[in-house]
C-alpha cells in the first residue's frame, strides 16, 4: 500500500457513527481554537494544528490513519473553495499594478528558493544535489490556505496582501512542475513524470519543463476566464441570485473548474482562482446596464458570503486533520535538522530569492513580503511522494532519501506556519502600520509632518 502524506497506517473502516464523531471532534477543536484566538489575540491557524496534534497522536481521540485519509480529500476540496473565494476578493486593479512582481516571484523567486534550500538540504544530509532540489521543489510553494484567513484576521494592506496571496496561489503549479522535473531525473519511469517525459523525449528535459509550466499556466488561465464568462452569463440571465440556487451555482463553478483543469493536465486550483477573479471583478470586465450590474452584484455578494463560511470550515478541517495525522516517530529522528532547514528557509532562502525581485520596493515592504511565506497544504501533500516512489519502484536509496524529505517537510510546515503566523501582527505594526496611518491621515485631509 502506498505511504500516505504523513506515513500513517492502520486506517479504520469509516462508518456513519465514526464520521460523525470525527466531524464533532474537528469542529470542537475549531471552536476552541477560535475562542482562544480572540481571547489571547493570536492566530488561530497554529492553534488548529497543535490542538489537532493533541487530539490525534498525543491523546488518541482521533485515529491517525483515518485523519490522514480524510486530510487527503479535505485538502483538495478545501483548497478549491478557499482559492475560489479569494479570487472574488482580489482586486483586478491591484493585480494589474503588481502583476510583474507576482509573476517574477512565481518563476525566478520560486526557482531560486528551491535551489538555495535544496543546496543546504543536500549539504546538511550529505545527499546528491538532485535529491536536495527535489526537497526544494516540494517545499518552495507558499500556502494560500494559511495566508488568506491570516491576512483577513490582521487586515494587512491590500497591495501587500495581493502580492503575497496571489504569489502563493500561482506558485503551486510551478512547485509541482519543479517536483516533476526532479522526479523525472531521479525516477524516469514514475507515472507522475510521464507527461513531462513525453514532451522531454522530443526536446529535452529542461525545455520540456518550461513548456509544461507555460502550458499549465496558460491553459488554467484560459479555462478560468472562459468559466468566469459562462458564470457571469448564468448570473445575468437566470434567476440564481438567492439561496439555495446561488450555493449550487458557486459549488458547480468551483469544482467544475477544478475538474476541467485537472482533466487537461493543467492546474485545477488555478482555474478555480481565475474563475473567482472574473466573477468578483465583473464590473470591470463586463459593461452592462445598471440594473443588470446590481442584480449580478447582489448574487456575487451572497455567493461570497456562503463561500467564506464554507472556506472557514474547510480551514479548520485542513489544519486540524493535518495535525492529527502526524506521525511523531517519523519526524523526531530529524527534528534538529528540520528546524534548522525551516529557519534557514524563512530567514535566508526566501529573503535572498526575493531580493533581486523586490529591490525597487521600500525596504520595509520587501522585508514583510519576504518574511511571510509559510508552507502548508501543497508541501504536506507532496511530502510523501519520494518515499512512495522509492517503495513502488524498489529503490532503496530513494526510500532512505524519501524518509528524510518526508520528516523534514512536515517539520518545516509546522515551524513556518507557527512562526510566520505568530509574528504577522508584529511585522505588520513595525513594517506597514506607519504607512497605513499616514494614508488614513491624508484621506482625512491631514498632512503628516516630515
From TrEMBL:
<feature type="transmembrane region" description="Helical">
    <location>
        <begin position="306"/>
        <end position="323"/>
    </location>
</feature>
<feature type="transmembrane region" description="Helical">
    <location>
        <begin position="335"/>
        <end position="355"/>
    </location>
</feature>
<feature type="transmembrane region" description="Helical">
    <location>
        <begin position="130"/>
        <end position="151"/>
    </location>
</feature>
<protein>
    <submittedName>
        <fullName>Sodium:proton antiporter</fullName>
    </submittedName>
</protein>
<keyword id="KW-0406">Ion transport</keyword>
<feature type="transmembrane region" description="Helical">
    <location>
        <begin position="102"/>
        <end position="124"/>
    </location>
</feature>
<dbReference type="GO" id="GO:0005886">
    <property type="term" value="C:plasma membrane"/>
</dbReference>
<feature type="transmembrane region" description="Helical">
    <location>
        <begin position="70"/>
        <end position="90"/>
    </location>
</feature>
<feature type="transmembrane region" description="Helical">
    <location>
        <begin position="405"/>
        <end position="427"/>
    </location>
</feature>
<feature type="domain" description="Cation/H+ exchanger transmembrane">
    <location>
        <begin position="31"/>
        <end position="427"/>
    </location>
</feature>
<feature type="transmembrane region" description="Helical">
    <location>
        <begin position="242"/>
        <end position="260"/>
    </location>
</feature>
<dbReference type="InterPro" id="IPR006153">
    <property type="entry name" value="Cation/H_exchanger_TM"/>
</dbReference>
<dbReference type="InterPro" id="IPR038770">
    <property type="entry name" value="Na+/solute_symporter_sf"/>
</dbReference>
<keyword id="KW-0050">Antiport</keyword>
<keyword id="KW-1003">Cell membrane</keyword>
<feature type="transmembrane region" description="Helical">
    <location>
        <begin position="376"/>
        <end position="393"/>
    </location>
</feature>
<keyword id="KW-0472">Membrane</keyword>
<keyword id="KW-1133">Transmembrane helix</keyword>
<feature type="transmembrane region" description="Helical">
    <location>
        <begin position="206"/>
        <end position="235"/>
    </location>
</feature>
<dbReference type="Pfam" id="PF00999">
    <property type="entry name" value="Na_H_Exchanger"/>
</dbReference>
<keyword id="KW-0813">Transport</keyword>
<feature type="transmembrane region" description="Helical">
    <location>
        <begin position="18"/>
        <end position="37"/>
    </location>
</feature>
<dbReference type="GO" id="GO:1902600">
    <property type="term" value="P:proton transmembrane transport"/>
</dbReference>
<dbReference type="GO" id="GO:0015297">
    <property type="term" value="F:antiporter activity"/>
</dbReference>
<keyword id="KW-0812">Transmembrane</keyword>
<feature type="transmembrane region" description="Helical">
    <location>
        <begin position="44"/>
        <end position="64"/>
    </location>
</feature>
